[in-house]
C-alpha cells in the first residue's frame, strides 16, 4: 500500500480492509480481485472460465464496487469482457439472487465471486437476463454452447 | 323501511339532532340493502373503521395464542403466513407442526455459546458475547450491525415482518425484541405500522378503502370466487370501487372485461387500428395518407406524389392503358391472382371492428362524462341551493337529504349505464361478428337477445332521464316559482314543495329498483335475458308512469 492508499484506508470500515487483505493473501482458486489504486471500494476482478464449461480457457474481467452502505447493501458487479451467457446481459450485468433480494450482510466479496464462477459452470436459462440468449439456450442448447465457446475464443483471451 | 315511507310519515319540522341520528342509521341500512346480492339480504360487505380493525386483529391474535399456547409475536407470524385465517392456522399447526414452524422461522433455542468473546460476522470485529444479540440460532452479531440490518430491512418494506437471521444459511426469524432494541425510532414506527396494516393487506377477506386519506377497510362477507367482482361504497368517505380489482365500481361488468376495456381504450392501440383501416403510406415518402371518397387518385399532402390507391403505382402511368381512372386493372389483375385479397380483407375487418368499437366506446364515454357532470351538479346544488331552500321551507338542511339521494342515484345510474356498453361490446362480440361476416347472420334467438338487451338499455336510459329531469329542472322550477311570486327568501309554498318531495322520492326509489334489477339480470348472463326480463320491463315502465 502506498501512502495515498493508506490515507484512504483509514476512512474505510475495518470489514472492507479485512476482506481486501484476505482476498489478496489467500485468493480463491481461479479468481483474482485487487482494489484500484485510487479507489479502495473499486475492485478489478478476473475469473478464469471453469473447466468443462464453454468458458474454459477464457479470462473474464469484471468490475466490483462496494457502495457506501456495504455490507448492508450488496456489492455492484459487472462483466467487462463480452460473454455469451443467459444470465448476463449486453451491458455485463448479472442476474444472481445474492446480488439482489437474497443478499445478506454476512456474505462477502469472496462468496459473491465464487457464486459468479459457479454460474459460469451452470447457466440458468429459466431465470434469464438476456432474453434472446436464454431462448437460444432453451431451444438449441448445443448451438448456444457453441456460440458461448466461440465468444470465449474471440473475446476472453488475455 | 324505505326512504319514501320514512319521509312520508315523518314531519318536516322534526328536531334536527334526532333527524341526523336517523339518517346515519338509514344510510347504513341502505348500503346493506343496495349491495346485498344474496336473497337473505345479508350484506355482501362491511366497512370497518380503525378501532374495529384493531379489535379484530387483537381477537385473531388471542384466538391463536390461546389455543396454541404461543407468544403473540409468533402467532402474528403464523397468521401472516396463513392470510389471517385463524382456523387454517389451527389446522396447519396441529397437522404439520414441524413444517409450519420451519416455514415461519421458528426454531428451538440453540445452546448458549460458552465463549466470552466472539467475532461479528458482519463487521469482523470482536466483542464480548454479552454485548451481542442473536435469534434462537445463536448466530451472534454486534449492536451496530443489527441496527444496520433491521433498519435496511424496514426501509425495504413490509417484507421486514418476515426478517430472518443475517447468516445466509440460517432461516431463524429475527425476534421483535431485537428490532425494538436496534431500529431507530422512525424505523420502529414504520415497522409497527406494517404489523397493523398486515391485518388488512395479508388478509384474504379485507381490502383498504381506495378513498384518498380514508382509513377504513372493507370486509367481504360472502363467498367469492377468485377474480369475482364486488362493488363497494365506503360509508365513511363515499368512495365507490370494486373489492376485487380496486377499479371504479363496475357492476354488471366482470373485472376481466374492465381490464380488457381499459387496454382497449388506451388511445394508442386503437389509433393504430384506425390508421390501418383508413390510410396507406405514401409510396414515396411513407406519410400515412387518408383515403377520400371514391376516387382512387391520391395526392400525398407532404411530397405531392400522385399515386393510385389500389396499386400504389405512379398515377402518371394510369389512364386508358390501365382501364380508366376509376378502375385500375393492374389491381384487378393482381386481385385475380389473389395477391391483394389478404390485405384488403384485413383492412376491411379492421375497419369494421373499429366502427363497432367506436359505437360502444362513444356511449360508454358519454355516460362517464355525464356522471362526472352529475357529480359536479350535486356538489353545486348542495353548496348553493340547500341552504336557501332550507331557509324558505323552514326545514333543517338535513331534512332535504332526499334531493342529494336523488342525485346520488343519478350518478350511480350513469355509472351502470356506462358499463352496460362495455357489457354489450363483449357480450355481443361474437354475435356482431357473425352478423357482419357470414351470409346466414344471427339466429332468431340471438336476434331476440340483442333486441331485449338494447330494449333494456333504452328503457333504463328513459327512466334515468325522468329522474334527472325532476332533480334538475323541476327543482329549479319549484324554487324559481317561489322567488318570483313572493320575492327571495319568502316562505315557499309548502304544499307544492311537499308534492315535489313525494314525487322525487318515489322516482328515486323506482329508478333504484329498476337499475338494481337490470344489473342483476345482466350479471346472470345474456341467455336468460329474454326469458326473465321479457315481461318485467313493461311492468316496471307502468310503475314509473304511475309515479309521475
Ligand atoms: Zn458487527
Ligand atoms: Zn442464524
Ligand atoms: Zn373510505
Ligand atoms: Zn373489479
Ligand atoms: Zn409523399
Ligand atoms: Zn393503379
TrEMBL record, chain A:
Belongs to the ubiquitin-conjugating enzyme family. It comes from the Eukaryota. Pfam families: UQ_con (PF00179). InterPro entries: UBC, UBQ-conjugating_AS, UBQ-conjugating_enzyme/RWD. Residues 11-157 form the UBC core domain. Keywords: ATP-binding, Nucleotide-binding, Transferase, Ubl conjugation pathway. This is Ubiquitin-conjugating enzyme/RWD-like protein. The keyword Nucleotide-binding applies. The active site is at 95 (glycyl thioester intermediate).
From TrEMBL, chain B:
Residues 1-37 are annotated as: Disordered. Pfam families: Ariadne (PF19422), IBR (PF01485), IBR_1 (PF22191), UBA_ARI1 (PF21235). The keyword Zinc applies. Keywords: Metal-binding, Repeat, Transferase, Ubl conjugation pathway, Zinc, Zinc-finger. PROSITE patterns: TRIAD, ZF_RING_2. Residues 13-25 have a biased composition (Acidic residues). Its EC number is 2.3.2.31. It catalyses: [E2 ubiquitin-conjugating enzyme]-S-ubiquitinyl-L-cysteine + [acceptor protein]-L-lysine = [E2 ubiquitin-conjugating enzyme]-L-cysteine + [acceptor protein]-N(6)-ubiquitinyl-L-lysine. CDD domains: BRcat_RBR_ANKIB1, Rcat_RBR_ARI7-like. It comes from the Eukaryota. This is RBR-type E3 ubiquitin transferase. It comes from Dunaliella salina (Green alga).
Amino acid at each position: 500500500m502506498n501512502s495515498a492508499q493508506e490515507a484512504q484506508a483509514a476512512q474505510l470500515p475495518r470489514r472492507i480492509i479485512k476482506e481486501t487483505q484476505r482476498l489478496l493473501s489467500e485468493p480463491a482458486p481461479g479468481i483474482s480481485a485487487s482494489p484500484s489504486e485510487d479507489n479502495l471500494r473499486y475492485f478489478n476482478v478476473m475469473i478464469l472460465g471453469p473447466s468443462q464449461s464453454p468458458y474454459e480457457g477464457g479470462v473474464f474481467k469484471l468490475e466490483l464496487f462496494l457502495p457506501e452502505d456495504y455490507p448492508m447493501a450488496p456489492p455492484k458487479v459487472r462483466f467487462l469482457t463480452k460473454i455469451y451467457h443467459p444470465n448476463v446481459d449486453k451491458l455485463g450485468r448479472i442476474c444472481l439472487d445474492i446480488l439482489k433480494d437474497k443478499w445478506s450482510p454476512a456474505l462477502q466479496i469472496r462468496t459473491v465471486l465464487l457464486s459468479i464462477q459457479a454460474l459460469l459452470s451452470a447457466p440458468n436459462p429459466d431465470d434469464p437476463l438476456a432474453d434472446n440468449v436464454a431462448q437460444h439456450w432453451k431451444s438449441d442448447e448445443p448451438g448456444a454452447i457453441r456460440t458461448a465457446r466461440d465468444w470465449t475464443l474471440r473475446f476472453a483471451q488475455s | 323501511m324505505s326512504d319514501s315511507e320514512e319521509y312520508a310519515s315523518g314531519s318536516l319540522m322534526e328536531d334536527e339532532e334526532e333527524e341526523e341520528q336517523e339518517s346515519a342509521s338509514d344510510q347504513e341500512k341502505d348500503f346493506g340493502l343496495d349491495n346485498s346480492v344474496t336473497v337473505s339480504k345479508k350484506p355482501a360487505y362491511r366497512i370497518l373503521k380503525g378501532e374495529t380493525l384493531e379489535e379484530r386483529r387483537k381477537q385473531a391474535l388471542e384466538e391463536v395464542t390461546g389455543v396454541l399456547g404461543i407468544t403473540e409475536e409468533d402467532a402474528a407470524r403464523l397468521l401472516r403466513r396463513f392470510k389471517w385465517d385463524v382456523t387454517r392456522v389451527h389446522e396447519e399447526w396441529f397437522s404439520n407442526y414441524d413444517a409450519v414452524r420451519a416455514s415461519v422461522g421458528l426454531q428451538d433455542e440453540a445452546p448458549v455459546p460458552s465463549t466470552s468473546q466472539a467475532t461479528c460476522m458482519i463487521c469482523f470485529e470482536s466483542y464480548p458475547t454479552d454485548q451481542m444479540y442473536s435469534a434462537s440460532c445463536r448466530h451472534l452479531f454486534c449492536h451496530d450491525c443489527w441496527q444496520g440490518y433491521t433498519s435496511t430491512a424496514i426501509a425495504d418494506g413490509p417484507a421486514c415482518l418476515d426478517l430472518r437471521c443475517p447468516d445466509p444459511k440460517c432461516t431463524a426469524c429475527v425476534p421483535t425484541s431485537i428490532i425494538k432494541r436496534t431500529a431507530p425510532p422512525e424505523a420502529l414506527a414504520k415497522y409497527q405500522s406494517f404489523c397493523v396494516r398486515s391485518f388488512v393487506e395479508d388478509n384474504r377477506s379485507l381490502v383498504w378503502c381506495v378513498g384518498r386519506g380514508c382509513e377504513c377497510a372493507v370486509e367481504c362477507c360472502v363467498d367469492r370466487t377468485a377474480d369475482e367482482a364486488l362493488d363497494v361504497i365506503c360509508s365513511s368517505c363515499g368512495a365507490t370501487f370494486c373489492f376485487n380489482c380496486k377499479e371504479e365500481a363496475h357492476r354488471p361488468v366482470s373485472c376481466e372485461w374492465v381490464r380488457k376495456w381499459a387496454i382497449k381504450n388506451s388511445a394508442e392501440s386503437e389509433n393504430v387500428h384506425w390508421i390501418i383501416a383508413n390510410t396507406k403510406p405514401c409510396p414515396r415518402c411513407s406519410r400515412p395518407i387518408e383515403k377520400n371518397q371514391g376516387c382512387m387518385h391520391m395526392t400525398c399532402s407532404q411530397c405531392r406524389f400522385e399515386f393510385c390507391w389500389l396499386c400504389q403505382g405512379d398515377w402518371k402511368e394510369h389512364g386508358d392503358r390501365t382501364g380508366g381512372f376509376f378502375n385500375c386493372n393492374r389491381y384487378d389483375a393482381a386481385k385475380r391472382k389473389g395477391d391483394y385479397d389478404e390485405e384488403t380483407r384485413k383492412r376491411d375487418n379492421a375497419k369494421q371492428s373499429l366502427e363497432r368499437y367506436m359505437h360502444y366506446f362513444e356511449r360508454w364515454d358519454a355516460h362517464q362524462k355525464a356522471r362526472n357532470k352529475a357529480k359536479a351538479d350535486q356538489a353545486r346544488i348542495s353548496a348553493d341551493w340547500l341552504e336557501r331552500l332550507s331557509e324558505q321551507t323552514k326545514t333543517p338542511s338535513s331534512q332535504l337529504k332526499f334531493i342529494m339521494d336523488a342525485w346520488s342515484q343519478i350518478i350511480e345510474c350513469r355509472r351502470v349505464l356506462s358499463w352496460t356498453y362495455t357489457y354489450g361490446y363483449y357480450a355481443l362480440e361474437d354475435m356482431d361478428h357473425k352478423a357482419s361476416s357470414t351470409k346466414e347472420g344471427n339466429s332468431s334467438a340471438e336476434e331476440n337477445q340483442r333486441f331485449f338487451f338494447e330494449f333494456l338499455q333504452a328503457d333504463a336510459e328513459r327512466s334515468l332521464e325522468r329522474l334527472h329531469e325532476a332533480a334538475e329542472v323541476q327543482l329549479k322550477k319549484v324554487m324559481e316559482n317561489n322567488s318570483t311570486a313572493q320575492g327571495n327568501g319568502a316562505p315557499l309554498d309548502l304544499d307544492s314543495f311537499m308534492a315535489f318531495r313525494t314525487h322525487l322520492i318515489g322516482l328515486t326509489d323506482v329508478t333504484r329498483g329498476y337499475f338494481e334489477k337490470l344489473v342483476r339480470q345482466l350479471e346472470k348472463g345474456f341467455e336468460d335475458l329474454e326469458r326473465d326480463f321479457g315481461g318485467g320491463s313493461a311492468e316496471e315502465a307502468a310503475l314509473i308512469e304511475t309515479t309521475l
